[in-house]
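Section 4.2 – Deliverable D4.2 (structural model, holo form)

The reporting period included a commitment to supply a predicted holo structure for the target in complex with zinc ion. Inputs used:
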Amino acid sequence: MSVDTDRDQGRDHDWIMAEAGRLAALGETAPRLARDPVNQPMINNWTEAIGDRNPIYADTEIARELYGGPVAPTAMAQVWTMYGLDPERPAHDPLHGTMRMLDEAGYTSVLGTNCDQTYARHLQPGEQVAVTTRLESVVGPKQTGVGEGYFVTTESRWWVALPDGRSEVVATMTFRVLKFRPRAAALAADLGEPVRPVVNRDTEFFWSGTAEGELRIQKCNACGVLRHPPGPVCPECHAMDRGYVVATGRGRVHSSVVHHAPKIPGKRLPLTLVLVELTEGVRMVGELLDPPETVEIGAPVVVDLVTVDDALTLPSWRLAEEGAR
Ligand code: ZN
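Output (structure tokens):
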């Protein structure tokens, strides 16, 4: 009998679908109880982290009037049943089981893609929540921008026991992840494809500037403040009217670091990265080309717009003569 090594010892599509079918057929897991009942300290921490000051989440008059006391944000449903730091998972957890199965088949990377939650009602301190989960589907293989992968969809339901012994669903969640095999081409090539910047409405002016030989700095048209990295709103006056100025391309090293790991596609390591304080006052990160053994803080630098290919011109930096203009 021979083993087909090209197919990960038989961990092929048919095996994946058979395993997925087996995991889906297990149905809904047994209810897993939350570690703690719904409680005010956890609500306080969560609303503070999120920045939600809705008074119904605290012991306020409006909370007492509407709900007889404070309630928990509905979006906290998942929080109550989170696993602790203990890596142990129940063997029948379908999401965990499916992840392990796809790992075995070589689809080792994961990307969350969709999360839809539905809330039936608010929870109140003292209520004890339990969660059940089932594997809804495994769909693939699909060719995606990050590589070939399978979309895994699970459905979770949060329950509270009623005094009469029945249970009530308080929230549901459909969660979809893409479990993918990182692009073989990028792994196989020595350096791989260079990393591309995200070009959007806020950054387009910057990248078309480098392509035209200009280093551009975003400027607020309302108050005149310069800012970098670019964004939609002025941090000073909150105006959205934005333009740019063309930088002189000169500045000084504010700080530097020599990057040894991890690998960066398209780059030979080690490489020296500098945070440059431009004469215009904003700071930019870039590679320092032909770096010396030691980079002096405050050393004058000048921009070098490096054409990587037709679609990408990257601002990099070179040491300049002191006093050069
Ligand atoms: Zn402004």
